[in-house]
Specification:
This protein has about 350 residues and is of the alpha+beta class. It contains 5 helices and 16 strands. The two termini are about 45 Å apart.
Length: about 350
């Protein structure tokens, strides 16, 4: 089992667009005996973890939080906590070099051509490929404390001789802000805001100052989000709880062999019913010839994918898996129409046929 992981720095982003691979038109020409070599994909899974990183910082006056503001559970020490917010899986087709074929057209066929991805995977035959929608990984915007609370401290507070005295003066300032807000709400303030806009500006400023000053007692939390993606390529066997990665509350995602984290398990159960072919020797030869001359495509199988963490199922879904499926072929004769060539569209990630237009 080969794992690879990519850490994407995304603290300041809301989304990341994953561009689709470019495609190239390959014409079937005489120099190549009117043949085009293409590759079918096999399934790989991109498992993306959305992680929230919370940085807890105590306020300067946390020892006095209960005495002056009645706060029983202030933050008392600086710490970093990672939480696993979401897990998503995307089916990505990668070239299967053991499944490369040639489609060969008749010399008199009307300008036959094939579109391939940059990696050689087939996209369409005799047709412009359909535009794939760009996939976006949405990353929430983190939160930081709005302002430095010390900008709101009075000179008297800054000149106080002890931390205890500073805490007492800041607590009074907080209660004064609350009293001012209550007076405005009840219409008893000496200087009422003249209109709705002024009212909003004044109330927003009071709330901002109160929140900032209160953080000196209760502490503050800064949050950031990032994603980490693991790629896993299955074979044709069932998978029972392999350790895809590990996750630590202190460190976040770590390597599968790093015991600092709890294991993140991946399971894959083949749900495709296998039907054995009982063919005679002559039938086998005809089938082999058909595959050698026609357009081979994948018929993916179905599987149940499960991701678990700490005895909880984070994700369970039915998914297409090329390695659990089979292959079929469009006969060479289908492409011999010189007046109106057949058009074939593929699911590039699967190598399965999406649409045939005759």
């Amino acid at each position: 089992m080969n794992f690879k992981y990519i850490l994407l720095s995304a603290f300041a982003l809301t989304s990341i667009s994953l561009p689709a691979q470019k495609t190239t038109r390959i014409n079937a020409v005489k120099a190549d005996n009117y043949g085009v070599i293409y590759t079918l994909p096999k399934t790989s899974f991109e498992i993306t973890l959305l992680v929230k990183k919370s940085i807890y910082r105590p306020g300067d006056f946390y020892p006095y939080a209960q005495r002056y503001l009645g706060i029983d559970n202030p933050i008392t020490e600086e710490k970093v906590v990672h939480t696993l917010e979401n897990v998503s899986v995307v089916n990505k087709g990668i070239p299967d070099k053991s499944n490369s074929y040639m489609i060969q057209f008749q010399p008199k066929t009307l300008e036959p051509f094939v579109y391939l991805r940059e990696d050689g995977v087939i996209v369409s035959v005799n047709a412009e490929p359909e535009l794939d929608k760009k996939e976006e990984v949405v990353i929430p915007t983190g939160e930081i404390p709005p302002v430095n609370p010390r900008r709101y401290l009075f000179q008297e507070t800054l000149m106080a001789g002890s931390v205890a005295k500073q805490a007492e003066l800041v607590a009074r300032q907080i209660f004064d802000l609350r009293r001012s807000r209550a007076d405005i709400l009840t219409g008893e303030a000496d200087n009422m805001p003249p209109d709705g806009n002024a009212y909003k500006v004044v109330m927003d400023e009071i709330n901002l100052q109160e929140q900032a000053l209160t953080s000196l007692f209760i502490g503050s939390v800064q949050t950031e989000y990032f994603i980490q993606t693991y790629t896993y390529v299955p074979d044709n066997k069932d998978i029972n709880k392999i350790v895809l990665a590990r996750f630590s509350e202190k460190l976040g995602p770590v390597d599968p062999d790093d015991l600092a984290g709890e294991p993140l398990f991946l399971s894959l159960l083949n749900k495709t019913v296998s039907v054995p072919l009982n063919l005679s020797e002559n039938e086998l030869k005809k089938l082999e010839k058909k595959f050698n001359e026609g357009l081979v495509y994948n018929v993916p199988g179905k599987a149940q994918l499960t991701i678990e963490f700490k005895n909880n199922i984070l994700l369970q879904k039915e998914i297409d898996v090329v390695q659990y499926g089979s292959q079929d072929v469009l006969t060479k004769k289908m492409f011999d129409n010189m007046k109106q060539p057949i058009q074939v569209f593929f699911y590039p990630e699967l190598g399965a046929i999406k649409q045939i237009i005759q």
